[in-house]
Design the sequence.
């Protein structure tokens, strides 16, 4: 089997844990090529050893492994971390320059020569040189022959269409290939195309939505097992065993940079602003919720059988929970009777109306506005979307969870249907402000932004 793709190289390998050692860089791979220069918005696979001391599990946070990749002082966002490789994305606003790519780990630092090229210059230099082969032993020449028979002659974006063409010179007519179109590491469109006269071509679009500027990747995939049996049987009669093995699966990779350097930078800034607008809205509403809940929390300190609240314990709770910054503010909150009477009885109607009108409704409006922005593009930023969705769902889950506790303490039936959000973002595994902050940080890193204080 022949594979030549960044995604394949980044796949998790089931390797045993390795001992701690200073990091070493063997080579850099960009768009399937072993080279040391890449365009803004591109992906870099750093191959070597000693980056981390074990294979990470699904629940591990790659940003907490002590790995940092920088170029001339700019940090490159991490996409994957493994003992033998690190994958990063070059921020779209990085200026073309030559310098050192520096990888820092818990056990040391290593650097290698690297350059960021202007997007058009990189495309002109490397657009016809993509791909590499993997093979073994005496079959290397055969594998190279097979790999070289699959190529791209065109990968362009014109009039809202992606136009691709190339050759598959060893294949008979009516054999088929799959062309996968990817952005930001995720496949968003695919075509199955037929080979005619040793050539193939594929058109994606025309799209009615906008495109994200930056690096688009194409993968040509040929799988012998998925061809017509009758045609394959006839074709394979004159093919030796080594060539059959080489043809079992072939994958060729190519990269196209859409947009100028300025267009990429401008759009990157716009995307960052849109995501941060949503995250900021969540923070604003979280502050509103905490202030309102703080006043209602006197329900938890109502003295059994008496019409009064255990004031000292209630004030101590407000300070310890961070719902009041000082004693003066705690005293002010304790006298708030908007959602609970002074005696500690909950005002369920007022509280329910407030949650719906002041929390769930504005959150839904902001989330839907954000989705409208994203839906205007042909593909999704899945990694960023996951973090932003969890920012929202962690907030909504906290509101429902804490509200349920209020109603339970007040011995009132919880209005589950009425206090249910009208939006359904990706569920967060944890409902807390700390989890929200962690997802916001990851979101900023995914967008190529620097979290405050880092």
Sequence:
């Amino acid at each position: 089997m022949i594979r030549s793709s960044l995604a394949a190289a980044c796949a998790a390998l089931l390797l045993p844990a390795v001992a701690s050692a200073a990091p070493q860089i063997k080579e850099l791979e960009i768009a399937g090529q072993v080279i040391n220069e890449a365009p803004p918005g591109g992906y870099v696979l750093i191959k070597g050893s000693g980056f981390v001391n074990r294979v990470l599990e699904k629940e591990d946070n790659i940003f907490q492994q002590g790995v940092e990749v920088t170029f001339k002082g700019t940090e490159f966002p991490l996409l994957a971390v493994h003992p033998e490789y690190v994958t990063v994305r070059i921020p779209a606003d990085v200026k073309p320059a030559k310098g050192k790519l520096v990888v820092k780990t818990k056990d040391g630092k290593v650097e290698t020569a690297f350059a960021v090229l202007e997007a058009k210059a990189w495309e002109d230099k490397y657009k016809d040189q993509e791909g590499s082969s993997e093979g073994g032993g005496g079959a290397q020449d055969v594998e190279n022959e097979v790999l070289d028979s699959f190529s791209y002659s065109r990968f362009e974006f014109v009039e809202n269409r992606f136009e691709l063409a190339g050759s598959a010179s060893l294949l008979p007519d009516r054999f088929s290939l799959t062309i996968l179109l990817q952005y930001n590491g995720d496949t968003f469109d695919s075509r199955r195309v037929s080979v005619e006269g040793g050539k193939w071509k594929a058109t994606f679009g025309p799209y009615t939505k906008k495109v994200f500027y930056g690096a688009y990747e194409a993968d040509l995939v040929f799988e012998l097992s998925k061809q017509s049996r009758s045609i394959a049987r006839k074709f394979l009669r004159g093919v030796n065993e080594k060539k059959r093995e080489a043809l079992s699966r072939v994958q060729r990779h190519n990269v196209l940079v859409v947009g100028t350097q300025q267009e990429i930078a401008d759009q990157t800034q716009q995307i960052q602003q849109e995501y941060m607008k949503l995250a900021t809205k969540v923070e604003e509403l979280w502050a509103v919720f905490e202030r309102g809940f703080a006043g209602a929390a006197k329900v938890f300190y109502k003295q059994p059988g008496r019409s009064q609240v255990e004031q000292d314990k209630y004030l101590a709770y407000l300070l310890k929970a961070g719902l009041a910054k000082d004693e003066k503010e705690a005293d002010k909150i304790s006298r708030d009777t908007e959602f609970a009477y002074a005696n500690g009885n909950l005002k369920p109607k007022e509280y329910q109306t407030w949650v719906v009108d002041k929390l769930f409704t504005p959150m839904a409006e902001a989330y839907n506005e954000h989705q409208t922005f994203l839906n205007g593009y042909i593909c999704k930023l899945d990694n960023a979307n996951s973090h932003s969705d969890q920012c929202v769902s962690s907030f909504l889950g906290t509101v429902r969870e804490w509200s349920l506790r209020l109603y339970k303490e007040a011995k009132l039936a919880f209005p589950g249907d009425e206090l249910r959000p009208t939006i359904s973002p990706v569920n967060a595994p944890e409902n807390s402000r700390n989890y929200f902050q962690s997802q916001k940080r990851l979101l900023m890193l995914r967008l190529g932004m620097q979290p405050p204080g880092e």
Notes: Confidence is low (pLDDT under 50) at residues 1-19, 130-139.
